[in-house]
Q: What sequence folds into this?
């Protein structure tokens, strides 16, 4: 009897493993359709109207007009270019957005967009999103943008010449999202995140020659309440912030010349970044002043293990005070405000200072005053066109997510979790039976 039970348990475990090997969670559905544009559908909008969850819309080489909307009733689709550099959405400085997505679990990848009066790729109020192998240049607001959305991934993408921010994830908590392996250049802000946080990471990316490199921020009156909080910024390289004139159609553009700016954010971790040659500050923590005169302080942030050099005013700075101490530890830097910042604001003891007057006069100021200090700025449409960027690996005509690393999501909501749960139950029962037999 014991032998039979053991054989049955082992057989069950093997069958479950084989089933998952043949059809793993997140694999494309057997009936997934590839809709080619313009071969099967004349336009991208027509292809979206035909698509079902799991379908791939594959754009052939060519220039497309943009102004596309993925409505809420078209979840779980992928929009992909066959060649990142040869599939281009051109707004001609007339159209607002390249692609606006209102449906859950929509992936956009392997194509380019430029010259839109608002945003290039834009997710609004969704659960599950991904933007990958995208190139954007010269837009009047955001390059790659998600608002009130969660469970997302931006990776392996390039934005240049965004007059507001190159990349944005905001007004979500928890956001449950990752930004990684990105490049942002010649934009007012490289990364902006208003009232965003909760399992959010900005990592392993290049932020070069932007007005400011990375600026999480807290402001009242938004769709999600302030403050911004609980984000990890790690492994980033930030160079030349504020040293090149860039377009500036952002309320935050006045806080120029900062590598990493924590603008009223709380409980963030700034770890292991390299910041060089900022016009004013390498890493600066300061309050965000609200229209009613109140302020959100930069509370409880940890600045550790960063390398900062060549900043015009100071490599590290703290301005405007704090209720919950922020701290600095293990950084390599040349100057700070207040002086000797790691001694007066340590991570393993009580702070003996909480602000610097010079940094406060520079940074603890309302938005209108900061904007008044900006000089003349170029138009977004005048910024240089970027070089060709690496195209997505793998077969572009294969449905499903093609990535070396596991995505945060890979199929319409609930399906992978259900399969995983059922498999886990069978495996646990099998292992339990094996344990009982061996006793």
A:
């Amino acid at each position: 009897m014991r032998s039979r039970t053991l054989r049955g348990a082992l057989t069950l475990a093997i069958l479950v493993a084989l089933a998952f090997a043949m059809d793993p969670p997140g694999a494309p559905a057997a009936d997934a359709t590839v809709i080619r544009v313009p071969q099967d559908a004349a336009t991208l909008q027509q292809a979206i109207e035909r698509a079902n969850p799991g379908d791939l819309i594959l754009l052939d080489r060519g220039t497309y007009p943009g102004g596309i909307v993925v409505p809420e009733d078209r979840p779980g689709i992928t929009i992909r270019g066959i060649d990142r550099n040869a599939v281009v959405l051109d707004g001609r400085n007339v159209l607002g957005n390249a692609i606006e997505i209102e449906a859950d679990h929509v992936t956009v990848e392997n194509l380019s967009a430029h010259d839109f009066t608002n945003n290039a790729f834009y997710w609004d109020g969704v659960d599950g999103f991904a933007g990958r192998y995208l190139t954007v240049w010269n837009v009047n607001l955001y390059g790659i943008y998600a608002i009130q959305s969660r469970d997302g991934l931006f990776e392996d993408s390039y934005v240049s010449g965004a007059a507001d921010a190159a990349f944005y994830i905001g007004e979500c908590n928890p956001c449950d999202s990752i930004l990684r392996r990105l490049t942002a250049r010649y934009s007012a802000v490289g990364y902006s995140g208003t009232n965003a946080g909760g399992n959010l990471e900005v990592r392993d990316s290049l932020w070069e020659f932007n007005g400011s490199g990375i600026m999480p921020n807290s402001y009242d009156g938004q769709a999600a309440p302030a403050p911004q909080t609980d984000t990890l910024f790690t492994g980033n390289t930030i160079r030349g912030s504020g040293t090149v004139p860039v377009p500036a159609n952002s309320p935050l553009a006045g806080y120029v010349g900062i590598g990493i700016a924590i603008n009223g954010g709380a409980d963030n971790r700034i770890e292991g970044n390299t910041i060089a040659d900022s016009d004013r500050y390498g890493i600066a923590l300061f309050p965000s002043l609200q229209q009613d005169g109140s302020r959100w302080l930069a509370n409880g942030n940890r600045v550790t293990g960063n390398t900062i050099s060549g900043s015009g005013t100071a490599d590290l700075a703290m301005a405007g005070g704090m209720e919950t101490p922020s701290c600095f530890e293990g950084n390599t830097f040349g100057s700070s405000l207040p002086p000797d910042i790691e001694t007066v604001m340590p991570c393993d003891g009580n702070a003996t200072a909480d602000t610097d007057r010079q940094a406060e006069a520079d940074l603890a100021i309302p938005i209108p005053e900061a904007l008044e200090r900006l000089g003349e700025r170029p138009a977004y449409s005048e910024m240089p066109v970027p070089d060709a960027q690496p195209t997505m690996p793998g077969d572009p005509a294969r449905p499903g997510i093609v990535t070396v690393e596991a995505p945060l999501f890979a199929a319409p909501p609930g399906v992978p979790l259900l399969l995983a749960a059922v498999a886990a139950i069978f495996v646990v029962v099998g292992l339990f039976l094996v344990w009982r037999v061996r006793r």
Summary: The first helix runs from residue 2 to 22. The two ends are 13 Å apart (CA to CA).
